From TrEMBL:
It comes from Candidatus Thalassarchaeum betae. This is tRNA guanosine(15) transglycosylase TgtA. Gene3D superfamilies: ArcTGT, C2 domain (3.10.450.90), PUA domain (2.30.130.10), Queuine tRNA-ribosyltransferase-like (3.20.20.105). GO terms for molecular function: metal ion binding; pentosyltransferase activity; RNA binding. GO terms for biological process: tRNA wobble guanine modification. One of its GO terms (cellular component) is cytoplasm. Keywords: Glycosyltransferase, Metal-binding, Transferase, tRNA processing, Zinc. Pathway: tRNA modification; archaeosine-tRNA biosynthesis. Residues 641-715 form the PUA domain. PROSITE patterns: PUA (PS50890). It holds the Pfam family PUA. SMART domains: PUA (SM00359).
Length: 718
């Protein structure tokens, strides 16, 4: 038992269950926050829940016993080096005789590397590409690594092209040698060249063997960048490589294991990390913390807590003999690493991974520089591999969130907020008719300033008065993120921005306001800035409010679901609704049918079955199949997004079961995670409606997990 580890707290975990044969090597996305995803990779020694870190275990130097990692820290998978074992006669014999799991005494998933990193450090390795894969297969590794050619960042373009091409040339042979049971890592090289990283991603992900393609794509050649804290280059590589790696392949950052980097890397789509940092830093008397590394000699009190350090002072640890000390520090480092990953996973679950990355970016100047560079990419969306990934990242966020949004200098650049603003400027339109029945264009913009949400309480009086005075007024509310239409006043995050009270009192200058209005096509209209008031004592108040309610439904259908305002108006003709105790619309009826309900948690929409039927009747066709070219007319309002279901699944989904990945034949590209969609058959007939869990691109690739969380089946027995 390692020093500082209390025997009483050790729990012994049972061995993992092997996956079903048909699931071997499949990756599913369970929950996501934009590009960050909680995933599950299925293997014969259990499933790996990602994002996670594979602790590096050197079979010659087991700083923390693999069994303890499994039992005590819940480590589901580790990584070791097959080349080190292959070179060592005794270890090799033992591994071949008893298997790698017995050699390491680890029941979970064993990943192994191939010796490429040794070739980078020592110049060459003695093993052949086929031989090292065969060895990993024969010792029973779960996920091995082919022998790739390490591409250093300082190499010439010609050398890096060679590293990409030679790695790709070895891919199919390696996959064939791996056979049916060994999953393989297909590393992506390419140095600092975006186009080479993208080409490598494409070559490696399209390689197929007799049994399957690569299970995981590690990004290689990045250790020298991390050693020199060149984080901008690191994240640039991740974005460029991801542009061509399909979403059903988890991405591993080879050699990345400092907790400081996890939130940003995960926010940009990294799933797996590996590192010996926990042990190497411990040997050097250094402690990992989520915000950096500290020297034991420099601390009087612990900068980060762990069970390993509990009950010890830095002074006492300093006085230990060096083996005992480094074992204790390695335990601490592993705990901190695991805790930061748990924090990241939790942030994905509650939609705050970007907020966490933003916070962590302040921990180091190099990381801050990298973070700001990523924000520039999100803004520019260049026509290159980095731009492809950043666009996908933004489009894969759910633009509407429940819960508070912490205000910061960078809040307006959070991907889901950029997404919401992009949808607003593309799809929102001024009303086609006004509460008094007039149908001419608007004559002015009225901006309510100095009011805090909920604006239906704080500003309703001023809004109604402005509309009574001039019915053809476009009423907007001022927010720290810019002016928004009053019709969307209960949409989160706008109404859930968290900061001191005076954030709502800020008076923006005319230029700032005009910039915000320009994006919505309102810049040519006279602007009237008004103060809020809550009382609305007009005889027309009821009529005006009914009109505002209808605007809210039409605008949300347009912005969140892509339904044209004309169709939205048709759907809501004669609508009525009840109001909640907080004065919000519930259960919207039209033509005697319950068509939808505004979601009280985030202001989005929940369709009802009759609403889904009526939306489907507007254009009863299935979307284009995944294997056919998309006829992209580029409409701002392409209609409610649809998912085309395979015939076999219709009886289940029609009864209300979720749509599973692998049963989808096509999906509209504007499908938005977290927002409503329809599920249809090959003739465009409605099967169900629900909430999209993944993007259309992901549905085209993923084979496991939920694609659409179904709210109601359309084929239920009466
Ligand atoms: N470990 C760290 N970097 C690399 C790499 O580029 N390739 C392989 N196989 N292992 C690594």
């Amino acid at each position: 038992m390692a020093s500082g580890v209390r025997a009483g707290s050790v729990s012994v975990r049972p061995d993992p269950e092997p996956c079903r044969a048909q699931d071997l090597g499949l990756f599913e996305v369970v929950t996501r926050d934009g590009a960050a995803r909680i995933g599950r990779l299925h293997t014969l020694h259990g499933s790996i829940n990602t994002p996670m870190l594979l602790p590096v275990v050197n079979p010659n130097l087991r700083t923390i016993e693999p069994r303890e990692m499994w039992d005590r820290y819940g480590v589901e998978a580790l990584i070791t080096n097959s080349y080190v074992i292959w070179k060592h006669d005794e270890l090799r014999g033992q591994a071949l005789a008893d298997g790698i799991h017995a050699l390491l005494d680890f029941p979970g998933v064993v990943v192994s590397d191939s010796g490429t990193f040794q070739s980078y450090v020592y110049g060459d390795v003695e093993v052949g590409a086929e031989e090292i894969v065969a060895f990993q297969r024969d010792i029973g590794v779960d996920i091995g690594t082919m022998l790739d050619v390490f591409g250093r960042p300082d190499m010439s373009r010609a050398e890096l092209e060679h590293s990409v091409e030679e790695t790709a040339a070895r891919a199919e042979q390696s996959l064939d040698t791996a056979g049916d049971g060994l999953l393989l890592n297909g590393p992506v090289q390419g140095g600092l060249y975006d186009d080479l990283r993208a080409a490598a991603g494409s070559l490696m992900s399209s390689a197929s063997g007799e049994h399957r393609g690569f299970a995981v794509h590690p990004i290689g050649g990045i250790v020298p960048l991390m050693e020199r804290q060149r984080y901008r280059a690191l994240f640039r590589i991740l974005l460029a490589a991801r542009s061509t790696i399909p979403p059903d392949r988890p991405i591993h950052l080879f050699g990345c294991g400092h907790p400081l980097l996890f939130p940003m890397a995960i926010a940009l789509g990294a799933d797996l990390f590996d590192s010996a940092a926990y042990a190497i830093f411990a040997r050097d008397d250094r402690l990992l913390t989520p915000t950096g590394t500290v020297k034991l000699a420099d601390v009087r009190e612990w900068p980060a807590h762990s069970a390993a350090l509990f009950g010890h002072t830095p002074h006492e640890v300093m006085a230990m003999d060096s083996d005992e000390r480094s074992t204790l520090l390695a335990h601490h480092n592993l705990e901190v690493t695991q805790a930061e990953l748990a924090r990241c996973r939790e942030a994905i679950r509650n939609g705050t991974i970007w907020q966490l990355a933003e916070q962590r970016s302040h921990s180091s100047p190099q990381l801050r520089d990298a973070f700001l560079w990523v924000l520039e990419q999100l803004y520019e969306l260049a026509d290159d591999p980095v731009g492809v990934t950043t666009l996908n990242l933004m489009a894969s966020t759910n633009p509407v969130r429940s819960g508070g949004e912490h205000l910061s200098d960078d809040v307006g650049m959070r991907p889901h907020i950029l997404h919401l603003h992009a949808l607003l400027s593309m799809r929102w339109r001024v009303p086609g008719s006004w509460w008094d029945g007039s149908e001419e264009g608007p004559v002015r913009v009225v901006l309510v300033e100095g009011a805090a949400p909920p604006w239906r309480d704080s500003a309703l009086g001023a809004v109604v008065s402005a509309l009574v005075e001039e019915p053809r007024s476009v009423v907007m509310v001022s927010t720290p993120l810019g002016p928004i239409p009053f019709s969307l006043e209960d949409l989160s995050p706008w109404c859930h921005l968290e900061g001191p009270d005076d954030i709502w009192m800020e008076a923006y200058d005319n230029d700032e306001i005009t910039e915000g209005l320009e994006g919505l096509g309102l810049d040519g209209l006279p602007l009237v800035r008004i103060a809020p008031s809550s009382d609305s004592e007009h005889e027309q108040t009821t009529t005006v409010r009914a009109w505002l309610d209808r605007c809210a439904v039409v605008d949300k259908l347009a912005v969140l679901c892509g339904v044209s305002p004309i169709d939205g108006c048709m759907l809501t003709d004669g609508m009525s609704s009840r109001r909640s105790r907080t004065d919000r619309m519930v259960n919207v009826h039209s033509g005697g049918e319950h068509i939808l309900s505004p979601r009280l948690t985030d202001g989005g929409l929940t369709l009802a079955l009759d609403g889904a039927r009526r939306l489907n009747a507007l254009d009863p066709n299935p979307p284009t199949a995944f294997d056919e070219p998309i006829d992209d007319e580029g409409s701002d309002h392409p209609g409610i997004p649809r998912v085309w279901l395979l015939d076999d699944a219709i009886p289940f989904v029609g009864q209300g079961r979720n749509v599973m990945q692998g049963y989808v034949l096509g999906a509209d590209p504007h499908l938005t995670c977290g927002q409503p969609c329809l599920v249809v058959d090959g003739n465009g007939g409605l099967v169900a409606h629900g909430i999209a869990v993944t993007t259309a691109l992901e549905m085209a690739h993923l084979k496991k997990g939920i694609a659409v969380r179904v709210r109601d089946g359309a084929l239920k027995d009466p």
